[in-house]
Amino acid sequence: MNTDFSFAVSRRGFLAAAAGAAVSASLGPARAFAGDERQIKVAPGQARLASASSPATAVWAYNGTVPGPTLRLRQRQPVRITVENGLDEDTTVHWHGIRLPNAMDGVPGLTQKPIKPGARFVYEFTPPDAGTFWFHPHANSLVQLGRGLAGALIIEEAEPVALDRDLLWLLQDWRLSSDDQIAGGFGSAMDASMSGRVGNLVTINGMAPGDQNVSAGERVRLRLANASLARMMALRFEGHRPVVVAIDGQPCEPHEPEDGRLVLAPAMRIDIVLDMQGDPGSRHAVIDDFYDGLAYTLTTFAYDKAPPLRAHPLDAPVGLPRNPLPTPDLASAMRQEIVVQGGMMGGGKLAGVGGMMGMGMPGMSGGAAWAINGMSMTGDGHVGMAPQFMLKRGASCHLTMRNETAWWHPMHIHGFSMLVLSRNGAPVSHRQWQDTVLLAPKDVIECAFVADNPGDWMLHCHVADHQMAGLMTVFRVT
Predict the structure, then answer these.
(1) pTM above threshold 0.85
(2) Domains of the chain by range and CATH?
(3) Helix (H, G, I), strand (E, B), or coil: what is residue 476?
């Protein structure tokens, strides 16, 4: 791993008299910053989600847009991002999938103090990996993410990749009421203990999908990012053969997905290459059919009528350059296991909250519905969370994740990418590194990583209701 990280340390006690807000800044003498500098303001806003003519929906936004601005940065180039909190509640920003210093990871209580209303925090890091990542809050996650706080973070390769176009679809799922406003009921016991808060409107880059205009013969890199609270997706590209070139920002061996479907759980990203081989003027649906009996057309590729750009697909490799991930030593790896328990129809003992769930519905009154190894951690993070396990810096870890529940769980690890070794005893091909691994009901998945990044790190389900209702733990690298 690239360990040439830059740290920013917050300074307390400087009060802006006019605003009465605390401002975090870097300690030490003033110095010129040689990297990229960005500003993000978190504040209420409005967006027209259902259509350009629909009523405006009250949202929470980064820099006034939903999703937030797409941050395009350079691999191995330092960045400093100042986040100002214009909400009436605490927030943080988690740079999802970036292998960065623990102090920059954005978990309140665990890695930083929350950003108070009116205050600022400076995040400073050097991204070691190129790829597709994203950013979102890790404070009151269910509500803040559900009200729109998400943005894409693209780390560009040092050398450009041979393509005609580089496209991003940041996918969000909204639960709207009949007046196009965000429905209440966040954290209901039903959502908490079952599939989570699945909505009734899916947007691409903040808008209800219309046609996606394409040209015959072009090669497109399509970056797919699922920023939903809970909605799983399984995308089929009718008339096309997508080639997967990266998962969760990490290049893999190029391959066509099994059954032609791209399964994309919350927080996951998949980069595909599409050679647009449809006829000029033709139309091809992109269908999401994850949920049985609820398939729908997400969008449609609409080819223009111009002659193809080229007679044959672009004669260039589709593979991406590998990132500098350390390879785990499986022979000497420390073995750890986490067991996911709870939920409706899951039964089980939640030791961290006083034993059996009893006759009541799990997750009622904001309580725990889920556990990892019998212990529940609810909320977003707090001071003094005891680690589930500890690793020495530089050690390899062989991690088994066992899902004993009846529900799907995208398990996200902070600070690392994991090499996925096997699923239910069958080896995983294509050398897949992931920071968010989807566990189907009763799945057993084996992964491995090198614990080269010190600190206390979160490991949790990225269905936000599940995380808030106990499906979260911490491990420590010393």
Answers:
(1) yes
(2) 15-156 (2.60.40.420), 165-303 (2.60.40.420), 334-477 (2.60.40.420)
(3) strand
